[in-house]
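Weekly puzzle thread! Below is a chain. First person to post its structure in token form gets bragging rights.
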Amino acid sequence: MIQDRKVTMPVRIRDATVASAMFAVPAAAAQAVIGYSGLEAARPRLLPGRAICSLAFIGYVDGDLGAYHEFAVAFLVRPPGPPGERAGRRRVGAFIHWLPVDQTFTLEAGRSIWGFPKELADIPIHLESRIKRGAVRVGGRTVIELAVRPGPPVPAALRAAEVDAYSCLDGVTRRTPWTLTPTGVRIRPGGATVRLGDHPVADQLRRLGLDGARALGTGVVGRVVMSFEDAEEIR
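Winning reply:
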């Protein structure tokens, strides 16, 4: 029960729009940011000494948690545990480091059901315009402004993608099976403009080298359908 409303599992999102940018950041700096989780940042073989950080604005239009705006700071991570315990898990997962939202219902649901690090913020986004823009402001202080220039369309996925989403809240690390089916996808190399503000989270992103950084690539999803299963405590 969340704010006197019953939430059933899996939680389903029937319509959302996404604008995201992916960056190669120093692996040591990324590990310093996510070390509290006990997880290890994945280091792609083609990018020695680098880790992958993703920034994304999501506009939720229709779903079990209502309509709201969200911003995500995420890192690709290796699945936890020794190799024998990794059987059946995906080779990499997405660790959700910071997840501000602009509505209290999804804030409480995200924290209590999955341990997602949600906090309340002002998140104006403009995903219907040619250049997708968004900002995050907390307590009147700007954290980030992000603009994404869409690329050419790519073929629709033949099947849903399955991702392990990791989170760490109050010292507990969790894994949540996450399924998503995107349509209306556009991708391109580069294509992002990042401006950071004076909030402490902005300083953390600045230490990753993200202020004015060139993106590896950007992606825009016209509509994505998602589902989130129950979270499993792993640490």
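Puzzle host: Confirmed. Bonus trivia for everyone else. Helices lie at 27-34, 104-114, 200-207.
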